[in-house]
Design brief:
alpha+beta, Beta-Lactamase, six-stranded antiparallel beta sheet, 10 helices, elongated
């Protein structure tokens, strides 16, 4: 950039001259200043109003020795217009006769426009190199967190970006900072991948936005069509179009690469879940093939299932419909506990599900269910045992629905647990068909 102090000094025909850079519609920040005595012009911020092309100072904030007050009628100012927008204000106190500021403002506007054009060229080259480096990182099977940390560092290495962050939506929908970085670490720290920095980053961005009117650019990160998070970048101070126009496609490109890393993580998680499910099936097969009474074999198999998945309990439920004495509801669903160890629901106990409609639907469809307050007797028995979530998987015997394998837990089930439940139910269906038809159990 040009030497702002020298340009401002050219206008210092009186006491002091200053160049102020506009940050939003009315707020400007001092970029440089000069006086004939060599006295430094200290940082300040001021509110201005555009009176038909003539800028009038309304208020000044912060210590500003040597800067004329708004009551100083000897002060002259001239807007610096770049690409049709006010970039800043050039001000001089005790100016000579004539209009010395307008030519200087034009020179300054041309300088800023040329610098913006060079910035576009530099940023475009850096943009492509950045995307290549991040793509290579993802190709090396890097996990999303290292990719996010590298992405924000790389973004801040591009001349147009001042600070950047990758935020991720958690299970509750709240956004958390996965990684962030800043060109000037003295302002907010060195950056890093910790969620604990969320408040610090938010305050730093808010302070900067209020002080200089910076606007951030964000691009969503999609994984399998759903929003996984976002990449957020704050532009460097003093940028004007066309340099600012480089930022949106740059951030969008980085968001796409972070999405690739997150998708890879999803695929890896699915593969691991499949491997875990197969391990569950292998462990459950041993007691089922070991002989002995079917009830005891099922109990041992369920013990293996709960140990491997980490859930609290597992039950094999035989669900059927029986005749009821009520004329209003002549048929009611009941479930019999065939196997499993949970105190309120001993093996062989039969429970009517007439007032447990959500449980009946969940058992039939194999949909996880959170046991909210209310419900029928069966639901209350589960809650009394500390069960808050039910993960059912339908049991099919001889091609027909026979019942359900129900995993009972105090916490929400993971995708791996749900996958293990489905695989275990398929194994138990084969075993039940054999013992029911061949062994006559």
């Amino acid at each position: 950039m040009a030497d702002w102090r020298r340009l401002a000094g050219l206008a210092a025909q009186g006491d002091v001259a200053a160049l102020a850079e506009a940050a939003c519609d009315a707020l400007v920040q001092l970029s440089g200043g000069s006086s004939p005595s060599g006295r430094p012009v200290e940082p300040w911020a001021a509110l201005w109003r555009d009176d038909g092309g003539r800028w009038t100072r309304l208020a000044t904030r912060g210590p500003a020795p040597g800067v004329p007050s708004r009551d100083d009628t000897r002060t002259a100012s001239c807007a610096v217009v770049v690409d049709g927008r006010t970039w800043g204000v050039l001000e001089a106190s005790s100016p000579p006769t004539g209009d010395p500021l307008t030519p200087l403002a034009r020179v300054l506007a041309d300088t800023v426009a040329r610098e913006a054009a060079f910035e576009v060229l530099r940023a475009s080259g850096a943009h492509q190199a950045l995307l290549l480096r991040l793509t290579a990182l993802v190709s090396g099977r890097a996990e999303p967190l290292p990719v996010a940390a590298a992405a924000v560092r790389e973004l801040c290495g591009v001349g147009v970006v001042d600070s950047a962050a990758v935020v991720r939506a958690d299970a509750e929908g709240a956004l958390r900072v996965s990684s962030w970085h800043c060109r000037d670490p003295r302002r907010v720290g060195a950056g890093g991948p910790t969620d604990a920095q969320l408040g610090l980053v938010s305050k730093a961005v808010a302070r900067r936005s209020l002080s200089c009117g910076a606007a951030g650019v964000a691009a969503p990160v999609f994984v399998d069509g759903a929003v996984w998070g976002a990449v957020v970048a704050c532009p460097r101070e003093g940028l004007v179009r066309p340099a600012l126009d480089v930022l949106p496609p740059l951030v969008a490109g980085v968001a796409g690469i972070v999405g690739m890393a997150a998708s890879n993580e999803t695929v890896r998680a699915e593969l691991l879940a499949e491997a875990d499910a197969q391990a569950v099936v292998a462990r459950m097969s041993r007691p089922l093939l070991g002989g002995g009474p079917p009830g005891e074999a099922l109990d041992r198999a369920l013990d293996e299932l709960t140990e491997l998945t980490g859930v609290g309990h597992a039950l094999v439920l035989h669900v059927r419909v029986r005749e009821a004495s009520s004329a209003v509801d002549p048929r009611v669903a009941v479930c019999e506990v065939v196997a499993g160890r949970i105190d309120p629901l001993p093996r062989g106990s039969v429970h009517a599900l007439g007032r447990d409609a959500p449980v009946v639907r969940a058992l039939a469809a194999g949909v996880p269910l959170a046991l909210a307050t209310g419900g029928g007797p069966f639901t209350r028995l589960l809650r009394d045992a500390g069960v808050e979530h039910l993960v059912p998987a339908p049991l099919v015997v001889g091609g027909a629905s026979w019942g359900s394998l129900a995993l009972a837990s105090s916490s929400a089930p993971s995708a791996a647990v749900r996958r293990a439940a489905v695989e275990a139910a398929a194994l138990l269906g084969v075993y039940l068909e054999r013992v029911l038809t061949v062994a006559g159990w």
